[in-house]
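W.,

You were right to be curious about this one. When I first looked at the sequence I had no strong expectations either way, so I just let the prediction run and decided to look at it fresh. Below is the sequence, 348 residues in total, followed by the output.
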Amino acid sequence: MEIEKEWMEPCQCPGVHGGIRKLKEMGKGFVHGALAASGAVLVSNPAEVVKTRLQLQGELGSTRAYTSTADAFTKILRQEGPLALQKGLGPALLYQIAMNGTRLGFYEPVKRLVQPYIPSHYWASVTAGFSCGALGAFIASPLFLVKARMQAYNSTASALGPAAAATAAVGSQHDYVRHGVFYALRYVYRTEGVAGLWRGVDAGMARTAAGSAVQLSTYESLKSSLRNLPGGADHPYIVELLSAFSTGFIVAAAMNPLDVVYSRMLNMKVVAGGGGGRGAGGAGGSGGGGGGSSYTPYTSSLDCLVKTVRNEGPKALWKGYGAHVLRLAPQSFLTLILLEWIRRVATT
């Protein structure tokens, strides 16, 4: 009976309880991060559609559909309707849950983990942000792939006639995305395999890790600096607003070159026929070559970077920067502000 009583008593092991407490904390952080980022993406997704289109146009010598960020917004609205500016919203929400839930949820625990080894608070923040960003990007990469293909897809291009369609659509066109995110994931798996779902993940991890390291460390540094200004401590909401808004511009600058490469890697189509690398695919999604084995326009993220610079010049790596700022400024701003608010609500 004494043995049974001992088994029935709750475990008094400090290590076990500490581990459970940390898991609960990380789970809570995941939920907070996912909710904050999902709320922000409802506002920022239209700019993401425009940014993706701008980054894909002119790829490997293809035609340009838009002359500027404003022109892209106008043409998408006129040719495809208002709902086209929310293309890819489904996978965008799922991506934010998976990626930012991981990135923002694990950030504080990871930062505390590395702080004993990295005395500088700033560099501990950079390390934690970089690590969590890379992990989140890897986990969520298939969802970003489907999102990019949905946002690039112009369902009305074929109705404009062959000549107009060639300039209305940018990048490879993946018709199957019309059937939804889960159908698209299954289709990519069947036709391109597991590697296809994680295509360009190295660029995606580098892009998100860099952006995450810059975003979280810059936000904390700005917030700390502004609090130390006269009257700063008396206006915490203004400090958070200014810090979050300013951070968006800096993050866009850090991410854009890798973002162009990532968008192109995700949207490229496996093309039947030999002679790899001859075109990225237009309105119909083809990109060169006659018979022979299949190929992709790019063999790797590095190959994509080299071909982009060689064919379009270094400025091509800054394509869509204006739209990127329009997306990241509110995305970063709203995510960080919502995260602060959710944390306050959760602790009251």
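Here's what jumped out at me. Residues 274-292 have pLDDT under 50 and may be disordered. And, maybe more interesting for your project: The two ends are 44 Å apart (CA to CA).

Coffee later to discuss?

I.
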